[in-house]
């Protein structure tokens, strides 16, 4: 059985991420969506909430599991029996950033990286831009599921309410 890992922060999961997960599932028998646990990185949503939102977003897909990646991605791939990492490429900038990681993951874990070119309609979408638009009061429903849009609104409101 062929297994691939689709890794990311998913803070939050966007329709662009979801498209990559679906297309990866078309190529592999099983896809594990791996959420990076990086305590040093400032996230809008904590790891538990990000996992729940990804689980809901992929609920209709068969052969897709959602897991946290507690340490090295290459070791996680070995742990789940994945032969490949699947990543979306939105631009040349993505490729520049991904290339050293792909070499490193092959050296550390013998795992190949497969790049899927982002669908043009999602190629400008990142979790960061979605959060920026939402923070400025703009609509994000073309870029995320309704459940994610609600969770982002709630998290941003909680940030605004929090005492300094
Ligand atoms: P961000 O969305 O902020 O880049 P992630 O770390 O969650 O954050 O991204 C994980 C992976 O998903 C990266 O390989 C990235 O290229 C890919 N990805 C993110 N957004 C899209 C998109 N809109 N279309 C295709 N791939 C994407």
Question: Would you give an account of this structure?
Answer:
This protein has 164 residues and is an alpha/beta fold. It has one domain: Rossmann fold. 46% of the residues lie in helices and 19% in strands. It has helices spanning 15-27, 47-57, 73-80, 92-109, 127-135, 146-161; strands at 3-8, 30-36, 64-69, 84-89, 112-117. The protein has a five-stranded parallel beta sheet with strand order 3-2-1-4-5, with helices on both faces. α4 (92-109) links the parallel β4 and β5. The model has no long low-confidence stretch (mean pLDDT 95). The chain binds adenosine-5'-diphosphate. Adenosine-5'-diphosphate (ADP) is lined by residues 8-10, 14, 16-17, 20, 87-88, 90, 94, 118, 122, 125-128.
**What is the CATH architecture term?**
3-Layer(aba) Sandwich
User: What is the highest CATH level, the class?
Assistant: Alpha Beta
Major sheet details: 5 strands, parallel
Radius of gyration (Å): 16 Å
What is the CATH homology-level superfamily? HUPs
How many DSSP E strands?
5
**Share of helix, binned:** 40-55%
Q: Which tags fit this structure?
A:
164 residues; alpha/beta; Rossmann fold; five-stranded parallel sheet; globular; binds adenosine-5'-diphosphate
Q: In brief, what are we looking at here?
A:
With 164 residues, the protein is an alpha/beta fold. Helix content is 46%, strand content 19%.
